[in-house]
Amino acid sequence: MSGPIRLVPDEAGADRTMQLRTLPLKRRRPVLPAQPEPAEELGLSADPLDELAERLHDICADAVHPFEIAAFLESDGLSDEQAALLYGRPDAFTVAEELFEKVERRYPGPSSEFANPWRADPWRCVVRGLVFALPGLGYLLGANLFAATRMRFGLPSGMLALTVATVASWAFNQALAHRAYRWLSRLRRRESAICLSIGAPIGALIAATAAYVVGGPRGSLYFAAGQSAYLGAATVLLVLGREKFLLLALAPASVGAGVVLAVDVPQVVRTVVLLSSLVLAVGLAVRELVDCIRGDKDAKDKDAVTVRLQLRQEIPHLLFGLACGTLTLIAGLGVTIHEAVKTGAAHGAHTTPTGPAMIALTLSLGLAEWLLFRYRAMAVAALRVSHTSGEFVRRTGGVLLGCLFIYLTTVAALDAAATVLWPGAPALGVPQLGALLLLGGSLWLALLLNAFGLSWSTALICLAAAGAESAGLLTGVDPTLLQLIGCGAAAFVLTAIAGPVLGRTTQHR
To answer: What is residue 38's predicted lDDT score, i.e. its pLDDT?
Structure first.
């Protein structure tokens, strides 16, 4: 979730994304002897158009209308005078019509060369799903940094500051990642690295400052600052395609969390483990940025073209990140905040744990990204084999529903598995599971529409849902009901938009 789907599916092969077809070279016509001889002795066709049909066989076989052949002939320099002189036809359009009749149709199916311009490595998506979920283990190591004896909104003192810092980081890094991806789509890796090197520290500083303004115990503020720095470094590594480096940085915290679950570990040791993961993540991010900036210096000197990206185009992605963070946190902490608001308890109340649901949602993000690539690949394939616009709409609609079904089924399965492994966690009821699936479906549809350029629409829809749920939660409305209404309305509107928009062939070219 730290960045949108990549704008260029294969940077190394970007120059092969579009190839223009050109006509085969004309054959040199043999010089006729002074005395005409029978056509059989020369080995020539009685109709000179047969030789042209043979030379342009592939183009004529793929054409869907004679005008398409006429366009090729005119681009090859065939005029009406030449059509009359060389082929005995009044004009180039007559030549095209006869070629269309001579050559049997062979409409192109999926080509091996252009079979899947949206290839995605499944294992890479699995790794990305892990690096989205594993940072949650850090909260087990830092749990003692929050004052459990003092409560604010039903949360341990300092947790509210951490929540605000998380939402701020999510929003800022979403916009930063999109801007960096825009540079990568223009094959400007050095500019993307410079953008990340400036933006990541700024985002970490903004999030840490927001946590400090909200206030809390000193240990929790330190934890919020460290988390903000980690999220900035993680954004750098994810955008630059270094997920394995991030997985390496998370290894100490993951192992430490496993040890904490088994035995009691002093807080000093926990802090050292957290700092080691933070230092590794920041160090690897800095190393990657330096390599990108230095390695592409020569390319910068060769390319003197100045490219400017408008900053206002990142605003909808910032709002989208803010909405996603808010909706996710309401799903995770909504019950706790609701009990505190409802009872006015200073120490919080007994609530239903939502940890398994959050683990399922974060682990599914890798699959969500892979399904986005898969949808685009299958939509391109449908574009090549569909003969009418109605057939294309039916094919893409089926692909959309299939991908959404696979994603939601996986989220439900992951939640069931996490509930079994989570100590003492009760299973989600039907309303709670429905709210979780509506949230996951809304976020997946929003990411898909973002990939097709509908960033403002998705941002405003998700932001409206997040605002309505936040207002209702603070007034004491049941959080599950809020999620069913808010995420359900968002999913309905996004689906209504996705159907007509994604059914247009021009969206997939």
So the answer is: 47
Tokens of 344: 């006015």
Q: Is 187 left (phi over 0), alpha (psi -120 to 50) or beta?
A: left
Produce one character per residue of 375-412: b if its CB has 16 or more CB atoms within 10 Å, e if not.
Answer: bbbbbbbbbeebeeeeebbebbeebbeebbeebbebbb
User: In 10 A of CB 200, how many CB atoms?
Assistant: 28
For range 31-55, the mean pLDDT: 61
Neighbours of 331 (CB within 10 A): 25
Output the pTM of the full model: 0.77
Which of 450, 403, 8, 411 lies closest to 187, judged by CA? 8
pLDDT at 71 over 80: yes
Q: Hey, what are 437's tokens?
A: 């699936």
**pLDDT of residue 50 exceeding 80:** yes
Q: Is 201 exposed, middle or buried (0-12, 13-18, 19+ CB in 10 A)?
A: middle
Q: How far apart are CA 433 and CA 427, in angstroms?
A: 9
Question: What 3 state SS string does 160-212 have?
Answer: HHHHHHHHHHHHHHHHHHHHHHHHHHCCCHHHHHHHHHHHHHHHHHHHHHHHH
What Cα–Cα distance (Å) separates residue 478 from each residue in 271, 292, 341, 416? 37, 49, 11, 23
Which candidate, 285, 275, 413, 407, places its Cα nearest to that of 357?
Answer: 413
Rounded CA-CA distance 415/403 in Å is: 19
State how far the alpha carbon of 303 is from the alpha carbons of 149, 291, 477, in Å: 60, 19, 58
Question: Beta 155-157 vs 147-152: how paired, if at all?
Answer: antiparallel
Are 201 and 209 contacting, i.e. CB atoms less than 8 angstroms apart? no
